[in-house]
Amino acid sequence: MEELEEKKEKKRVTFLLGLIVILLAIIVISIILLTRSNQPIEQAKKEAIAIARQHTNLSEVDHFYQFSRKKVYFSLTGKEKDGKEIAVIIPKKSGKITVLNQKDGLTEEAVRQLVQQQSPEESIKKASLGIYKGKPAWEVVTTSKNKTENYYVVSFKEGKYLSTIHNI
């Protein structure tokens, strides 16, 4: 009888150890995949900072954005050595780098407030700075109560809605 109990106990321990090993393997694989999936964005951020520093006196980076429309842009907001707040928009492919004085347009916080006031029932997922039809613009992505996404493109300088797409 004791031998039967010992066998059952051994099976339980073996099962639990196997389960722990499988769970640890899943956790390790998940961490590896998550790390690898973030590497391209981190690399793009490093490159964008290096390019921005070549064209400005950028000393401090506050935010990094990826803006994807017909073209992809990487953008940074931050401060120059003299304290002036700027935004730098860099096309993914070669092209003109745009440097903006942050006080001449909307900040991320301001554009989020603008969209939230216009669409209070939606929750904001992200805001990104880029170029839309040749002009600096913010793209704000929201989620509706029915779980659909909405895209708003807002002019950097005037805060006007340039494009709106609902219920995607």
From TrEMBL:
Family matches, as InterPro entries: Cystatin_sf, TseB-like_dom
Organism: Melissococcus plutonius (strain ATCC 35311 / DSM 29964 / CIP 104052 / LMG 20360 / NCIMB 702443)
Residues in Cell wall elongation regulator TseB-like domain copies: 47-91
Keywords associated with the record: Membrane, Transmembrane, Transmembrane helix
Protein name, as recorded: Cell wall elongation regulator TseB-like domain-containing protein
SUPFAM superfamilies for this protein: Cystatin/monellin
Pfam families registered for this protein in UniProt: TseB
Gene3D superfamilies assigned: 3.10.450.40
Keyword presence, Membrane: yes
Segments passing through the bilayer: 12-34
